[in-house]
Amino acid sequence: MKHFIYSLLEKFIIPKSIVQNPSQKIIHMTDTPSDIYPELDRLVTLTSPNLVIHTGDIVDDIKLELYPNRLDLYEKKLIRLNHLLSKHPNTQFIFVLGNHDHFEAVKKHLTCAQIYPESGTIDTFFGLFSFAHKFEDLPDIPSDYYLFGHSYASITPNLNPEKYINGLKHISIFIESPHEIVNVHYPPSTDAMRQNRRRRGF
Predict the structure, then answer these.
(1) In the chain, what are the domain boundaries?
(2) Per the database record, which ranges form the Calcineurin-like phosphoesterase domain (predicted)?
């Protein structure tokens, strides 16, 4: 019943075991419409991750590549996101730019984060992570995990989905102890918001 209510309210269903686990955590997310920013803030508040890696299209309800005249609104939403991030000084934030992002605006307004224009790698307690917005832009180096977003069609069936993680499908939480990856689904209408549509009724 609780899961049904949370689904109707467009909330993340975050397992209590993660919330109560004090060990180190890494969160991967991607392609986030601005309407879910409050839920992203709640997720970070409840799970206290050491690191959040966002693989691009930070304001995914504004398609700047298609509508560059919407830059002012895009910047306002970045400012809102930065305000939420600044509430978590103990969390490191990494953002990779997506095809609908604007480098100068992101550098100016996401002051709480490290910005990677195309791709990057980071060595963590969970292993070596390589990340990019698009699958084809991932660094060509041996890594434990490859994180990306952009398209559901990016990953081919012959690649291990536990190693090549498409953040469009769900948010991944990497937990130090026990050494595991837990998936948290986005609110139900997230894909519709990514396409500039809103759910109508129930």
Answers:
(1) 23-172+187-194
(2) 25-189
DSSP 136: G
CATH 2.40.50.140 is right for the domain spanning 23-172+187-194 = no
Question: Element (H or E) spanning 95, and its range?
Answer: strand 92-96
For residue 156, the model assigns a pLDDT of 66
Dump pLDDT digits (tens) for 23-75.
999 999 999 999 999 999 999 999 999 999 999 999 999 999 999 999 999 99
Token pair belonging to 70: 């919407």
For residue 188, whether the previous peptide bond is cis, meaning omega lies within 30 degrees of 0, is: no
In angstroms, the CA 64 to CA 118 distance is 16
pLDDT along the chain (202 residues), means of 10: 49 90 97 96 96 97 93 97 96 97 97 96 98 96 96 75 92 96 92 68 34
Q: In what order do the strands lie in the sheet with 113-116?
A: 113-116, 92-96, 51-54, 25-29, 171-175, 180-184
Question: Which residue has tokens 């791709």?
Answer: 119
Question: Cα(2)–Cα(115) distance, rounded to whole angstroms?
Answer: 37
Handedness of CA 193, 83, 71, 31 (dihedral sign): negative
- Using CA atoms of 163, 164, 166, 170 in order, give the dihedral in degrees to the nearest 10: -10
Cβ-based neighbour number of residue 1 at 10 Å = 5
